[in-house]
Amino acid sequence: MPIYEYACTSCDHDFELLRPMSRMDEPTPCPECSSKAKRQISMFASYSIGAEGTISPVGGGGCCGGSCGGGACSTGF
Ligand SMILES: [Zn+2]
User: Where are the domains of the chain?
Assistant: First the structure.
């Protein structure tokens, strides 16, 4: 399952959560205050970090959009 990043709309706490892709846009309760937290655009999903520390964008729709079936995607598990 991919990791998504969420930010609380009430207390600004941000955290990461393992969720199925089908539910990634659903609000989730904040672990700090139980208010609704919305999904953030995660660096982990949007960028890949190369062996030399270089960061390169991965597509436009995030990771696991169909091009990561070969095992290259580290967030796909
Ligand atoms: Zn909160």
Answer: 3-53
Q: How many CA atoms lie within 13 A of 40 on its CB side?
A: 16
Residue 38 β-bridge partners: 7
Note the pLDDT tens digit of each residue in 9-44.
999 999 999 999 899 889 999 999 999 999 987 555
**Ligand 1: distance of its center to the CA of 7 in Å?**
8
Q: How far is the CA of 70 from the centre of ligand 1 (A)?
A: 37
Q: Which residues contact 41 (CB under 8 A, 6 or more apart)?
A: 5
Residue 64 alpha carbon to ligand 1 centre in Å: 28
Mean pLDDT of the 44-66 span: 61
